[in-house]
């Protein structure tokens, strides 16, 4: 079990832990019976009349292959979650009007049944507008073509289609007995999504719409409560919920005081778009926000995302990368991201210690100083009490007096006192282990590294285009979200005296576009590419070009990276070429915008599906030549050995799309470097479920040019595990170990303890680094300090080598540390390496 132990000081708290775990198990067990009643009041949701606290995590079924679902759900449960949340994605389920798809990655019924099998609850966010950084916010393209439609307002055509889809999903879930009222796992359903700011935009019509949506949802008769996020005044029985980073401080709660405080999106990172540098949200800040939310009366938080996964194919919204919320507690590959996963697990255990007080105690607040306070829940007659000591100062640590005792409360932290005396958790004190993700070269990179190419047959001419109009046309209306690509082509005649007299002066092609990117050709010669950004999708391409006397031809391959996913009047958002001019001619600027334009939708290779086994045999492939634009490349490779996730490094390429065995892996854009000089994403997950043992085919469409022969096949793992804990932990928190499915106190002294634990089927085979004193650095890059103790490595090796997990005392006496050494922090730092156990090793 991948388990970072929660540290507590008094064995007396053990009874509360057992009580909390037993209550959670009983609640989960109720799901197997016929019908569970879900109700609520201001304090919490209630399961068959019993109050409960909920730790939920977002895992979206289309963003991971089905073979990963059981492991992701199991790791979420192991991390202390009791709810799994997902949106429902309208545009994948009904890509064409009345044409439905609920197979493979889109099998939401199977996903919910797997949640139920692991005795967890579920939350279904039907929307059906979801945003979710998903293409078109989840709305199918065909909706745009419904006469008279306006999205997400009091518009009859939209309401008719929305209600039809909501009823379809509710019926599908009912038919599978998935609502809690039927004995299923689903305890909450969501209608609409983050509508409050749109309600302002649509004014009275927006208010009418949201009231209609609430009544429509309730009319479906699911038997479970409905919610609306970011909708303070949710109508009727619908519960409003919060989305954001710090809902405990930024959200006053529902205006209707009979409804509980629920948090549907606690952002565990920042989703990223092409052009973004790396970013992350610390485990300490997430824990602070959750502890704070529970301290003000919240009883449910949902981590968005707990596992982000991948926007396969064309699933992501405008400019959103395929890698989605990789900094979540479970990364893109489903691997534990430590210490985030473990620190939040410890928090869940600490809050469960306090469940009785949180759910039944009388709340009160006590100021402790500037930016300092205590929030208390207490049942005096039962001697049940929990206190949250908060320090909102982001720079200054403090010591506070509370009920006759002194407590150290670090900056930007919450300390949880499970009995109003004993600190069982500090959001700023991380006891969980750390780990480091490493990527490993696979021999399949160089084995049979033979590439072939197929170049788009020819750049289209105006007369060959079936769609010919006076001006360049809006792109989405022509591509209809079937492809990212649209050709714009025209021709124009020049006389000799139109051209510059000096040979060192070249005319400039200037193209204005609504977005998102383009590749331009003049007389079949590549002249350059350009693109917008997530924040400013419109852009101007300006490139010098060679023109000639006579007829000159311009062809522009416009490209979108998904559709917009939010905002009012989404149905009117545009993309593609807006105007075209030629500057620098002797006769002045030539405006080609009204010149007459041909439009060709998509690529020849797309039409022939050259990325599939069948389609690739319909064209002639030649030995590859590198650095060619508008080229399809392919090679074959065998599956790398082992079980670690497979990754393709696309650093040597420019921009395009990639497929493995006919399945879309996502858009790549290595040529777009962020401010730190690197592409936002260059590593792409290829799920093993898409691979065969032999002869997998990788196909790319490259728009700009690159070196496919330099692409690498890798595997990824998180086998470097670390701990970094100080003996001078002001809380002196003591360890818990899990035994026989319960938590019990570790006997011994009050020193902190460090736990190192390998993933399943692996054991600690090497201690890479160990030091006690004042070590420096981060996991994977520790260095010894001036108070280093040479004995540390020997002690750790003896305790840990050959074991899946080991517990280490954090004490100067164990390692021979000198507390009088100048500069010592009395810290133990260890880095160990996990490897697969030999078959004969004990499990």
Outline the secondary-structure elements.
Elements: H1 14-29, E1 38-40, E2 45-47, E3 50-51, E4 54-59, H2 69-78, E5 83-87, H3 90-93, H4 108-117, E6 121-127, H5 156-175, E7 186-191, H6 196-202, H7 204-219, E8 226-229, E9 239-244, H8 247-250, E10 262-267, H9 283-295, E11 300-307, H10 340-353, H11 355-360, E12 362-369, E13 372-379, E14 384-391, E15 398-402, E16 405-409, E17 413-417, E18 423-426, E19 434-441, E20 452-455, E21 467-469, H12 476-479, E22 485-494, E23 508-513, E24 517-522, E25 525-531, E26 539-544, E27 550-559, E28 577-585, E29 588-591, E30 597-601, H13 604-607, H14 613-616, E31 622-623, E32 631-637, E33 646-649, E34 655-660, E35 663-669, E36 683-686, E37 696-702, E38 712-726, E39 736-739, E40 742-745, E41 753-757, E42 762-773, E43 776-778, E44 781-783, H15 791-800, E45 805-809, H16 812-815, E46 827-836
The portion of residues forming beta strands comes to 25-35%
- What is the general shape? globular
The strand count comes to 46
Q: What is the C-level CATH assignment of the largest domain?
A: Alpha Beta
The number of domains is: 3
Structural class: alpha+beta
The CATH topology of the largest domain: TIM Barrel
Low-confidence spans: pLDDT under 50, at least 5 residues? 1-33, 730-749
Distance between the termini: 11 Å
Biggest sheet character: 8 strands, parallel, barrel
* Number of DSSP helical runs: 16
Q: What is the C-alpha radius of gyration, as a whole number of Å?
A: 30 Å
Task: Strand order, main sheet: write it out.
Answer: 4-5-6-7-8-9-10-11
CATH superfamily of the largest domain: Glycosidases
Shape-level CATH architecture of the largest domain: Alpha-Beta Barrel
pLDDT averaged over residues: 92
Report the helical percentage: 10-25%
């Amino acid at each position: 079990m991948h388990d970072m132990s929660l540290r507590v000081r008094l064995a007396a708290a053990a009874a509360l832990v057992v009580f909390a775990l037993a209550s959670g198990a009983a609640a989960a067990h109720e799901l197997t019976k016929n019908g569970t009643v879900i109700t609520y009041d201001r304090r919490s949701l209630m399961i068959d009349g019993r109050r409960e606290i909920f730790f939920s995590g977002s895992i979206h079924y289309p963003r991971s292959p089905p073979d990963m679902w059981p492991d992701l759900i199991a790791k979420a449960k192991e991390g202390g979650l009791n709810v799994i949340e997902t949106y429902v994605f309208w545009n994948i389920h009904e890509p064409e009007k009345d044409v439905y798809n609920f197979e493979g990655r889109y099998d939401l019924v199977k996903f919910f049944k797997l949640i139920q099998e692991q005795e967890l609850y579920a939350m279904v966010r039907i929307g059906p507008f979801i945003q979710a950084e998903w293409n078109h916010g989840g709305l199918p393209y065909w909706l745009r073509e419904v006469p008279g439609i306006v999205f997400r307002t009091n518009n009859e055509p939209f309401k008719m289609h929305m209600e039809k889809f909501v009823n379809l999903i509710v019926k599908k879930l009912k038919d599978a007995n998935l609502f809690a009222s039927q004995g299923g796992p689903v305890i909450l359903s969501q209608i609409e999504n983050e509508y409050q700011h749109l309600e302002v935009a649509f004014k009275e019509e927006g208010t009418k719409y949201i009231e209609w949506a609430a009544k429509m949802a309730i009319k479906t008769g699911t038997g479970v409560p409905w919610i609306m996020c970011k909708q303070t005044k949710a109508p009727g029985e619908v519960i409003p919920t919060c989305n954001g980073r710090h809902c405990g401080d930024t959200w006053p709660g529902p205006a209707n005081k009979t409804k509980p405080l629920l948090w549907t999106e606690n952002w565990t990172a920042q989703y990223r778009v092409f052009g973004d540098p790396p970013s992350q949200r610390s485990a300490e800040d997430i824990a602070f926000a959750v502890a704070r939310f529970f301290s003000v009366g919240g009883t449910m938080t949902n981590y968005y995302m707990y596992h982000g996964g991948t926007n396969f194919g064309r699933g992501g919204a405008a400019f959103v990368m395929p890698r989605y919320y990789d900094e979540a507690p479970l990364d893109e590959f489903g691997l534990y991201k430590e210490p985030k996963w473990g620190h939040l697990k410890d928090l869940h255990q600490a809050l469960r210690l306090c469940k009785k007080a949180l759910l039944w105690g009388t709340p009160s607040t006590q100021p402790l100083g500037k930016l300092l306070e205590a929030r208390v829940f207490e049942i005096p007659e039962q001697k049940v009490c929990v206190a949250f000591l908060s320090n909102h100062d982001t720079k200054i640590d403090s010591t506070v007096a509370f009920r006759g005792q002194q407590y150290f409360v670090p900056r930007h932290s919450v300390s949880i006192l499970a009995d109003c005396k004993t600190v069982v958790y500090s959001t700023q004190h991380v006891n969980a282990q750390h780990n480091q993700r490493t990527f490993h070269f696979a021999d399949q990179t160089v084995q049979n590294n033979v590439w072939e190419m197929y170049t788009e047959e020819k750049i289209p001419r105006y007369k060959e285009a079936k769609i010919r109009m006076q001006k360049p046309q809006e792109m989405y209306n022509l591509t209809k979200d079937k492809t990212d690509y649209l050709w714009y082509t025209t021709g124009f005649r020049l006389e000799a005296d139109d051209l510059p007299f000096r040979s060192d002066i070249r005319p400039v092609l200037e193209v204005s576009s609504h977005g998102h990117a383009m590749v331009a050709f003049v007389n079949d010669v590549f002249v350059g590419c350009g693109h917008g950004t997530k924040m400013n999708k419109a852009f101007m391409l300006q490139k010098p070009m060679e023109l000639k006397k006579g007829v000159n031809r311009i062809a522009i391959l416009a490209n979108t990276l998904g559709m917009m996913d939010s905002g009012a009047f989404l149905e009117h958002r545009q993309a593609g070429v807006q105007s075209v001019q030629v500057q620098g001619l002797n006769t002045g600027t030539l405006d080609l915008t009204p010149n007459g334009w041909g439009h060709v939708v998509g690529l020849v290779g797309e039409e022939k599906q050259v990325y599939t086994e069948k389609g690739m045999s319909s064209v002639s492939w030649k030995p590859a030549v590198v650095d060619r634009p508008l080229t399809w490349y392919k090679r074959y490779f065998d599956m790398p050995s082992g079980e670690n996730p497979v990754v393709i490094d696309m650093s040597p390429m420019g921009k395009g799309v990639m497929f493995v065995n006919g399945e879309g892996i996502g858009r790549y854009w290595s040529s777009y470097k962020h401010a730190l000089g690197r592409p936002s994403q260059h590593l792409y997950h290829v799920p093993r479920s898409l691979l065969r043992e032999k002869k997998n085919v990788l196909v790319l469409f490259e728009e700009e040019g690159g070196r496919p022969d330099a692409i690498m096949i890798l595997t990824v793992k998180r086998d470097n595990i670390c701990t970094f804990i100080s003996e001078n932990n002001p809380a002196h928190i003591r360890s818990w170990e899990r035994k026989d499915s319960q938590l019990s106190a570790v006997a011994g002294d009050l020193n902190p303890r460090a736990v190192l634990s390998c993933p399943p089927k692996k054991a600690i085979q090497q201690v890479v680094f160990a030091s006690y004193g004042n070590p420096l650095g981060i996991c994977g890059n520790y260095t010894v300090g001036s108070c280093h103790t040479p004995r540390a490595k020997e002690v750790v090796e003896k305790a840990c080598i050959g074991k899946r997990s080991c517990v280490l005392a954090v004490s100067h006496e164990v390692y021979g540390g000198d507390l009088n050494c100048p500069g010592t922090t009395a810290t133990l730092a260890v880095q160990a390496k996990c490897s697969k156990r030999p078959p004969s090793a004990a499990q």
